Amino acid sequence: MANRHGDFIWYELLTRDADAAARFYGAVIGWQSRSAEGSDRGYRIFGIDGTDVGGLMPFPPGAEGAGMRPIWLGYVAVENVDAAAADIVRDGGTQHMAPTDIPGVGRFAMLSDPQGVMLYIMRGAVEGTSTAFDQNKFGHCNWNELSTGDPQAALAFYRARFGWEKGDAMPMGEMGDYQFITHGGRTIGAVMRRTPDGPPPLWTFYFGVEDIDVAAQAVSGNGGTIHYGPAEVPGGVFIIVASDPQGALFGLVGPRKS
């Protein structure tokens, strides 16, 4: 089945040192990386067990000087990129890259929501199904978590754009609810209120690993920083939130085997 409007279909790391990033994530998650065919910007593909799960791109010229920092971004499938981009801007979002065609790949645009959280929207050139998000496989994204200043406004915004719905919620005291979001009958992630002393509003993507303790050791041993965890979450698995050596925030989720 082809991906639906509102599905997460790709994940991409923007970084200042692509070679170092490829080595780091290879050691931590087990990804292999290769150059994207036909790319003139040094774009690389992350894959595992023969399946492509994400991309890696060095900063475009001038981006770092303009304030861009290493970051993971998600791609959300839409039926019509131009119409979706115009709708996001009309509802208070910002367009950073106008709708653009990538021959043989699809049409995409880079935007941010009204609270400044960046994301891509995309319509693929073929009707294949992306499995970059797959909660049953290691090395794939297993969870999409939005940390933002106004969770209710964010939920309303994304529901109107992508059809996401509220699922269950876990109370988090003064921080409010950890609100699960569902799409197409499955839970794909959650929205939470950002802590005042935490990072700015952003998406954090959790990638599946076979052993959370082994992965945590690989993060620390290869120059990354663990900010939280390993901590147990519902389902009998554990998570960590970390940043890579360039400072891009990401999450890992998996079982504890020792």
UniProtKB/TrEMBL annotation:
<feature type="domain" description="VOC">
    <location>
        <begin position="137"/>
        <end position="255"/>
    </location>
</feature>
<protein>
    <submittedName>
        <fullName>VOC family protein</fullName>
    </submittedName>
</protein>
<dbReference type="InterPro" id="IPR004360">
    <property type="entry name" value="Glyas_Fos-R_dOase_dom"/>
</dbReference>
<dbReference type="Pfam" id="PF00903">
    <property type="entry name" value="Glyoxalase"/>
</dbReference>
<feature type="domain" description="VOC">
    <location>
        <begin position="7"/>
        <end position="124"/>
    </location>
</feature>
<dbReference type="InterPro" id="IPR037523">
    <property type="entry name" value="VOC_core"/>
</dbReference>
<dbReference type="InterPro" id="IPR052164">
    <property type="entry name" value="Anthracycline_SecMetBiosynth"/>
</dbReference>
<dbReference type="InterPro" id="IPR029068">
    <property type="entry name" value="Glyas_Bleomycin-R_OHBP_Dase"/>
</dbReference>
